[in-house]
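Handoff note, outgoing to incoming analyst
You'll be picking up this chain. Sequence as last confirmed:
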Amino acid sequence: MAAATTPMEPISPANTRVGWIGTGVMGRSMCSHLIKAGYSLTVFNRTQSKTQPLLDMGARYAPSPVELASQSDVVFSIVGYPSDVRSVLIGSSGALQGLRPGGILVDMTTSDPSLAVEISDAASSKGCVSVDAPVSGGDRGAKAGTLAIFAGGDESLVRSLKPLFDCMGKVNYMGGPGKGQFAKLANQITIASTMMGLVEGMMYAHKAGLDVGLYLDAISTGAAGSKSLDLYGSRILKRDFEAGFFVNHFVKDLGICLRECQNMGLALPGLALAQQLYLSLQAHGEGSLGTQALILALERLNNVSLQSSI
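Most recent structure output, in case you need it:
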């Protein structure tokens, strides 16, 4: 086995063992790209059955984050909530406890910027290093390997990790520890308001008697075109609310955004309204749907259904 990778060593399948914590909607696809690129991969997920597709591709399973880290030079995580990040990375049986000096933690969960700084400090105290690297692009971006990756940490360290990041998408260096998380939160604020505009436009087009499918095609190449429209317009029309990104996780992200706004003394009313509407989806038991389910909240507000547009 290769010695623990340091930021100075070139990362390659020949000398870098990768560990991956969290093999859900996003993680599974991201892992598959690393396996296809030839990296030796060890995986952990609380629900072991969710790792089976990766085990079938040649990954190994570790029964705990600490054991996974003991077999890895670089440990990635993409889990649900900041509490999960804390547990799997710096908790009493977290990955940092098993990582050898020179090892690298890369958290790709959307989480608290302050936690990213805490993880960086904890890693440094153990002779290791860390990067916060949340992603945007949803399940389709994960499958296609075209994610936008927002990286915070030491710039030379992020540059050294580029061979791994390139398997998953495009890495963007945003600054020191926590800055990747701040960039992702700003991204989520933009997405929230864009999704609001998309579903409100669809509701208006429907109420005006337009063919909503034709309307979406017409605006897609104009100034109203957006990635959200491309990813979710047709899904909404087909009543396809399968999660590429869960409502529950988006509510978590927007809640972090609002807390950071309070810390900054920043008023963002569009963000606050979007969060309230997504909370209403949770209240109706729709937290496991995808973020495009926002249309359901607008339909309830107006006692209208777009199903008659199909």
